[in-house]
Specification:
two-stranded antiparallel ribbon
Length: 83
C-alpha cells in the first residue's frame, strides 16, 4: 500500500558511480515546511526502514549531501531546525 504524504512531489534515484556502487536519491517537496512535518511525523518509521536496509546489506552507508531550494516563493515560514 502506498501512502500519500502531503507536500511530497517525487523521488529520483541516480547512479553516481558504477565501480563504487554509489547512488544519489533526490526527494522533491512543495515546501520546506512539508518536508520538516514529514520528518517529525515519520521519524521512527524512517529509522526502522534505514536499519532494515542496512541489515539486509542493501545500504552500507547513507550521507546527507545537502538541501537545496529551487524556488523561494513560499514566503518567510519559520521552521524549527532538526539534527
Amino acid at each position: 500500500m502506498v501512502r500519500r504524504v502531503e507536500g511530497f512531489i517525487r523521488s529520483e534515484v541516480r547512479q553516481e558511480s558504477t565501480d563504487e556502487r554509489q547512488y544519489r536519491v533526490l526527494d522533491f517537496w512543495k515546501s520546506h515546511l512539508d518536508f520538516e512535518f514529514f520528518r517529525c511525523r515519520f521519524q521512527a518509521e524512517c529509522e526502522k526502514f534505514d536499519q532494515l536496509l542496512q541489515l539486509e546489506g542493501l545500504v552500507e552507508k547513507q550521507q546527507l549531501v545537502g538541501t537545496y531550494y529551487l524556488d523561494d516563493s513560499s514566503g518567510t515560514e519559520e521552521v524549527p531546525a532538526f539534527s
